[in-house]
Amino acid sequence: MAVTFSDLYAESGLKALDEFLSGKTYISGHQPTKDDIKVFAAVVADPGSSFPNVSKWYGCVSSHLAASFPRKAAGVKFGGAAAPAEEPKKEAAAADDDDIDLFGEETEEEKKAAEEREAAKKSSAKKKESGKSSVLMDVKPWDDETDMKKLEEAVRSVKMEGLFWGASKLVPVGYGIKKLQIMLTIVDDLVSVDNLIEDHLLTEPINEYVQSCDIVAFNKI
């Protein structure tokens, strides 16, 4: 449950904080958290012996902050009147919005970002695991005068991402005509057999040799 502190720049606020810290080392448990940073930002300075519990806590938080910035400081001084009452509150609000976690705790935003990265990795892995299919195709010439060697060369000249031509052989059809029977492997998400036939094998210049194509077998790998 959230704890509310007010007027930590005044004696009344420090007194309430001192009572709250009685028997405690930190605001929210035995380890420093962002709650300590928020309250630390609202307390103008170490109140000293007037509020011993606050003073002890203030020193502990200061030592943790100092350890987070180990380089030697040149020294800074402040002049002028004391900051108005609303300034500590603004500073505390700024600390709340700070993306830097000095104690290594993971914020809600960091957790969400990590979950989104993990989901993106899984989605990418699924795309990479796209299925493949093995296809056996009959490619028929126009007549017995068609040069079957050039026909096969024309068929294999089709290059597409996800298309892999395999073994082939000539099979007699009749009347001296032979057809080309050829194996091919496709990545399902990248190649459509229908498009391969209609947009490539049955268009110029390949249709000079190819009269038709038929799918003999289609198997998922």
Structural commentary:
Among the domains are: 58 residues, no CATH class; 89 residues, Alpha-Beta Plaits, CATH 3.30.70.60. A 4-stranded antiparallel β-sheet has the order 2-3-1-4, with helices on one face. The chain contains 7 helices and 4 strands; from the N terminus they run H-H-H-H-H-E-H-E-E-H-E. It is α+β, with helices and mostly antiparallel strands and 221 residues long. A hairpin with a 2-residue loop joins strand 2 and strand 3. 39% of the residues lie in helices and 20% in strands. Helix 2 packs antiparallel against helix 4. EF-1 is composed of 4 subunits: alpha, beta (1B-alpha=beta'), delta (1B-beta), and gamma (1B-gamma). EF-1-beta and EF-1-delta stimulate the exchange of GDP bound to EF-1-alpha to GTP. Keywords: Elongation factor, Protein biosynthesis. This is Elongation factor 1-beta 2-like isoform X2.
Give a quick precis of the structure.
With 221 residues, the protein is α+β, with helices and mostly antiparallel strands. Helices cover 39% and strands 20% of the residues.
